[in-house]
Design a protein that fits this description.
Radius of gyration of chain A: 20 Å
Helix content of chain C: over 70%
Strand order of the largest sheet of chain A: 6-7-8-3-9-10
Distance between the termini of chain C: 10 Å
Order of helices and strands of chain A: EEEHEEHEHHHEHEHEEHHH
Order of helices and strands of chain C: HHHHHHHHHHHHH
Structural class of chain A: alpha/beta
Chains: A alpha/beta, B alpha/beta, C mainly alpha
Distance between the termini of chain A: 42 Å
Number of helices of chain A: 10
Largest sheet of chain A: 6 strands, mixed
Largest sheet of chain C: none
Shape of chain A: globular
Oligomer: heterotrimer
């Protein structure tokens, strides 16, 4: 019982039929199980349609769960009412992929960061100092509070999104492809920030990404998803460098490496693997 | 750069701070000021009509029937001897009150319904939509006529019913705005932050609704006034008091005796309607302009002149035996955008590169480096406002920088081809895949329909599409992203081009699909012996596909050379920092150390 | 595709049914003393009661409605209470007239609007600003003001042809044309403005899309890109606006017919509703509802042809 902050147990998520030509209900997650310990980063890797984003959204209460359970500190949160779910907001938070649409362009940074605090009925003075504290944690200048999102770059906006997620001191943050939209150098800096925050506050991450290399940097354990199911789940180093499952190996070999000689060899190996799989 | 599209042009909401600013800005817009002033004056005239009117509007003087303007009656007297000016003034209040009533009724119903259906959707949206279609199918005047038969000449009743009839306009606008914003990630973030629905709506959704609703209200008020006037003109309004439409009717019956009298009520109706419409328009212009980030961005230091400054480029030595026929020779290229203040902002400066036949030249950089702009410039397909301000682009003896549009059109497709980044948005949604493949083939190669079709099917097979005839007949929205990209590649090579410009062709694709598309590009390049300029931000892709590479930063090339050489020994500090930032081969985290870990 | 048409037809039938029911209900509620109005103030109570019985006004609502529906299904819309003329005759004789006005105005609107919208979107500059300004004005100014202005102009100042009155097509095609020219122009102004603005906006939007650049990169001429591809994509929203304008045109026709003394449905509508002539009003509502349904169906089919996504959904 102890040691498990979040437990996903044979989770099934189905989107109902109807609505835009969906005749049958669409099963996005087909019995998925994993767990996250306090202070741990679990990486969740997959391509589009794998269900990785759906799993993240289910943990956040944004997807329709039709089977299985999601347990937070032992308590099943998969079927909570809206009002009960709101109470969890100080425990589970989110950082989304798109830095351009995850911040309301019409609000100032201060307004965005104090939004989660208003629910807790925090006094104005305390809220202002908390904002400064948060901006400091993500290495943004204190005067950022009065500015609008569009005055910041993509990387800076992600920092603001991270600050917002930290506002209520959560124990778990679902990170949905948080660096996929960022430049290479910005990506490295933001990943370093994620790591630093975890080391300092002990927060746990469910880190969703399509990039095995990115996930490797941050994750203690990694799960690989394909078509709504987890096909490989284990130690981060092993899964991202020496995968076992054929799909993970295909994924691993498909990502090109920045070394022309090594890449040529990988290409050959990938084609061998593909030939082997198609003859089976 | 990445799969995420560029930041949206129009900002969906305007903050409270900006709203006050908009009003002030509106006062600077001439049409806005004039129409607002006119409306304010009209309202005041209507309120103070009893004071301003020279005569009692109902006092008819038989002796003064159809009196000419001037003298006792400033604008003349109508067919019964009433003073026209007084009647005009007294008619203002009921007219405006009626219009306001109609708009308020419509807004109350439409905005509420739109908010609920946009936010909660599902069955309510379906039902509301159906009702809205029903209401919109009813011709307003006809319904009002029928209503009048029932309720008699009541302005209050007529305008209430009219308000119900035009509520769908508010509904549609609000529903569209709300359901658009509902999908935004910041609304999801607000939910996760624990905000209640009511709070989310008031904080995030209403701001988006405000602007379009106000603009619509102004326009609908104008229409309401027109309808009122129309009913009064038909003699179906309240005949006991002065109305503009009634006055128009009176003047119309006397059209041959006193045609000038038509002018006054026409002006009253026409100018008021115009003022409302122009006000709505001015509001829309101001709100759209305040939304565009370009205006607000702090003005970059625009270079005073367009003279290109040379900076040293680190060039690695050529590998022996790699020289081939030079296809593309770009020399000191500079690309700039004209700014509203007259200066030119350069996004590419002093770029020189060479692409040889049979060679893949990678152009790598982060966002804002100018790599895509360089690619567009070579094809002369820069976005509006952009132009080549210096340098030359030599392709097969033609200077592309100075060639005529006709020459360029001839070269594009046939000799120079382009593969874009986003597969789905680069296919015309209204035509089948087959049509989009065969049309350029027929135009460029001049072949007939049957042969073009045969070629297209062959190409589809060549690029690895499983069922060519099926895809040929399909529409873009019916195929996946990976297939769409293959189609685009097929289209690009359809006329055997010499030079292929690929702008991040795999960035928007899944990694497994990416690998296959890169394989395809490699095969095609070898088969057609094309020279390829590959724009990307991914060093792995460069390592996989490219023979030479140029690293761009802030519009310039900082390092260039054969791939093996640059990758083995990056010399420029920027190149080195990029290599350091690559997560590949990084240190893993290792398992979590807790008391429970064995 | 077939199912698409069937669904639209079904929706249309429902619309007609709902409209008829609502109208009948409204007229029933208007109560009033129709019999007295027909016979005049001098009539005795007995004659009024007799008239009421004659017209069937003393029967319950549902029976009356049921009767009307069953008769209507056979094409019998009853007789006008005031003139005694069969409703179907009264309407059919004037339907063609009103339709020629409304359809004429729609066609003129569409053609002129496309030209203006394309010019504004492709030329930009002063042409664009002019079209935009005219659009706002044209949309704002009520059609009947334009009509009055035209009548005044041609009746008082320019004596080119008789501004009012109507000539049957059978009598003289040229005179028919000149008799509907002014009303059609008056009705078109609003439509042109609305549709031109929409086409301009949609076309500008379409030209900003990625696929336009890709099409250009394939060597297609600017002409092809604009007229074949971009315009096709821009047509959908413009068609929707045109459909909405059409509904407004039916209403506008009522007033315009009065002004130009055109013997169409509008004149009948004003008279019938003023007097409370229920069979006639019901007949009119039915006729208009059917017209709207047919037009909407045609527009939907056209939208399906233009936009493949609509077909599939």
């Amino acid at each position: 019982m102890t040691g498990r902050l979040l437990e996903v147990d044979k989770l099934i998520v189905e989107y109902p039929a109807g609505g835009f030509g969906r005749k049958q209900p669409f099963r996005a997650l087909n019995g998925v199980s994993l767990d996250i310990r306090p202070g741990e980063t679990v990486g969740l890797v997959g391509e589009s349609g794998s269900g990785k984003t759906t799993l993240g959204r289910a943990v956040l209460g944004l997807a329709p769960v039709t089977g299985g359970a999601i347990r937070y500190n032992g308590r099943d949160i998969s079927q909570l009412s809206r009002s009960k779910r709101r109470e969890l907001s100080s425990e589970i938070q989110v950082v989304f992929q798109d830095p351009y649409t995850s911040l309301n362009p019409a609000l100032t940074i201060e307004q965005i960061l104090t939004e989660p605090l208003t629910i807790r009925k925090v006094a104005k003075a305390e809220a202002t100092s908390r904002v400064r504290e948060l901006l400091d944690q993500v290495r943004l200048p204190a005067d950022a509070g009065s500015r609008l999102p569009r005055e910041f770059s993509g990387g800076q906006r992600q920092r603001i999104a991270i600050a917002r997620a930290l506002a209520l001191d959560p124990r778990l943050i679902v990170c949905d492809e948080p660096v996929s939209a960022l430049d290479l150098s910005t990506q490295a800096r933001v990943l370093a920030l994620f790591k630093e925050i975890q080391e300092r506050t002990g927060v746990a991450y469910l880190f969703v990404s399509h990039d095995l290399a990115v996930v490797r940097l941050l994750s203690h354990r990694v799960a690989v998803m394909h078509r709504g199911e987890i096909v490989e789940w284990g130690d981060g180093d092993q899964v991202t460098a020496r995968p076992q499952h054929p799909y993970t190996r295909t994924l691993f070999l498909a990502a090109p490496v920045p070394d022309p000689v090594a890449q040529a060899e990988r290409r050959a190996e990938r084609q061998r693997l593909k030939a082997a799989l198609t003859t089976n | 750069m990445t799969a995420v599209p560029l930041p949206p042009e129009a900002v969906p909401g305007v903050s409270a701070v900006e709203h006050a600013g908009v009003f002030r800005r509106l006062l600077k817009d001439p049409t806005g000021v004039v129409s607002l002033a006119f409306l304010v004056l009209t309202v005041l005239a209507g309120v103070f009509a009893p004071v301003l009117a020279p005569h009692d509007p109902d006092k008819a003087s038989a002796a003064d029937i159809l009196a000419k303007p001037g003298g006792r009656y400033l604008l003349g007297a109508d067919g019964s001897g009433h003073d026209i000016l007084s009647r005009l003034l007294y008619a203002i209040r009921p007219t405006l009150e009626g219009a306001v009533l109609a708009v308020l009724v419509a807004a109350a119903i439409g905005v509420t319904a739109g908010l609920i259906s946009g936010y909660y959707g599902r069955w309510f949206a379906g039902a509301a939509s159906w009702v809205a279609s029903l209401l919109m199918a009813l011709p307003g005047i006809v319904v009002l006529l029928a209503a009048r038969a029932v309720i008699g000449p009541s302005l209050f009743g007529a305008m209430t019913i009219f308000g119900i009839l035009i509520a769908p306009a508010f509904y549609r606008v609000v529903h569209a705005a709300v359901s658009g914003v509902r999908q935004e990630l910041y609304v999801d973030a607000a939910r996760v932050s624990g905000l209640s629905d009511a709070r989310i709506i008031s904080r995030h959704i209403l701001t988006v609704v405000r602007a379009p609703a106000i603009i619509l209200a102004a326009n609908l008020a104008g229409i309401a006034i027109a309808i009122e006037a129309g009913l009064d003109f038909l003699g179906l309004g309240d005949l006991s008091r002065p109305t503009w439409g009634g006055m128009l009717n009176d003047a119309f019956t006397n059209i041959y005796s006193a045609p000038l009298q038509l002018l006054w009520p026409s002006l009253a109706i026409g100018l008021t309607c115009m003022a409302l419409a122009l006000l709505g328009n001015a509001l829309r212009d101001e709100l759209e302009r305040s939304g565009t980030p370009k205006r607000r961005r702090r003005a970059k230091r625009a270079p005073a002149t367009v003279s290109v400054q040379r900076e040293p480029v680190i060039t690695h030595d050529e590998i022996a035996g790699s020289a081939g026929e030079e296809l593309l020779l770009v020399r000191e290229l500079a690309v700039g955008y004209d700014q509203p203040n007259g200066s030119v902002q350069t996004v590419v400066e002093d770029v020189s590169l060479t692409v040889r036949r049979g060679e893949v030249h990678g152009l790598i950089g982060e966002s804002g480096s100018g790599k895509t702009q360089t690619a567009f410039a070579i094809m002369r397909l820069l976005p509006p406002g952009g132009r080549i301000v210096a340098g030359d682009i030599n392709f097969a003896g033609v200077d592309l920088a100075r060639g005529s549009e006709k020459e360029m059109t001839r070269l594009r497709g046939a000799r120079i081809a382009y593969v874009p980044q986003e597969p789905m948005s680069n296919l015309d949604p209204s035509f089948t895949i087959g049509h989009q493949l065969t049309e350029p083939i027929r135009v460029s190669l001049g072949v007939g329909r049957a042969e073009a079709r045969a070629r297209a099917l062959q190409l589809l097979e060549r690029v690895g599409i499983p069922d060519p005839p099926r895809t040929f007949a399909a529409y873009p929205h019916q195929i996946s992203g990976g297939m769409a990209q293959r189609v685009l590649i097929a289209g690009a090579v359809s006329c055997n081009p010499d030079l292929l410009i690929a702008d991040e062709p795999t960035t928007a694709l899944d990694v497994t699909v990416q690998a296959e598309v890169l394989d395809l590009l490699r095969d095609l390049q070898a088969e057609f012996q094309m020279g390829v300029l590959l724009v990307t931000h991914n060093f792995g892709v460069v390592a996989d596909l490219c023979d030479r590479v140029s690293v761009m930063r802030a519009g310039r090339i900082v390092e260039t050379g054969p791939v093996r050489s640059v990758f083995a020994d990056p010399r420029h500090p920027y190149t080195k920092s990029l290599f350091d930032a690559i997560p590949e081969d990084s240190q893993p985290r290792g398992p979590l150390l807790t008391k429970e870990t064995p | 595709m077939f199912r698409f048409v069937l669904r639209r037809l079904g929706a249309g039938v429902v619309l007609v049914a709902v409209l008829s029911t609502l109208t009948f209900l409204l007229l029933y509620l208007s109560g009033g003393n129709i019999a007295r109005r027909i016979l005049g103030q001098q009539a005795t109570e007995d004659t009024v009661l007799q008239k009421k019985h004659e017209l069937g006004l003393d029967r319950p609502l549902l029976t009356r409605f049921g009767d009307w529906v069953s008769h209507a299904a056979h094409g019998n819309l009853g007789d006008s209470w005031f003139t005694g003329q069969p409703v179907s005759d009264a309407i059919s004789s004037r339907l063609a007239v009103t339709l020629s006005l409304v359809i004429g105005a729609t066609v003129v609107s569409a053609v002129v609007a496309v030209v203006l919208g394309v010019v504004a979107a492709t030329r930009r500059g002063w042409a664009d600003r002019l079209v935009q300004f005219l659009s706002v004005l044209g949309f704002a100014i009520p059609g009947f003001l334009v009509a009055i202005g035209l009548v005044t102009l041609f009746a008082i100042k320019i004596h080119l042809f008789k501004p009012t009155g109507y000539v049957q097509f059978g009598e003289s095609p040229t005179q028919w044309l000149s008799s509907i020219a002014l009303p059609v122009i008056a009705l078109s102004v609003g439509g042109i403005a609305g549709v031109a603005a929409q086409i301009r906006g949609s076309l500008l939007d379409a030209l900003r899309q990625d696929y336009v650049r890709t099409l250009r990169s394939r060597g297609l001429s600017e002409r092809r890109v604009v007229y074949k591809h971009a315009l096709r994509n821009a047509a959908g929203p413009a068609l929707s606006v045109l459909a909405i304008q059409f509904v407004g045109l039916l209403g506008g026709a009522v007033i315009v017919e009065q002004i130009f003394a055109i013997p169409g449905l509008g004149q009948v509508a004003v008279g019938a509703t003023g007097q409370g002539d229920i069979p006639l009003v019901m007949g009119l509502v039915l006729a208009i509802a059917v017209i709207v349904v047919v037009v909407n169906l045609a527009v939907d089919l056209l939208q399906g042809w233009l936009n493949p996504k609509v077909r599939v959904s």
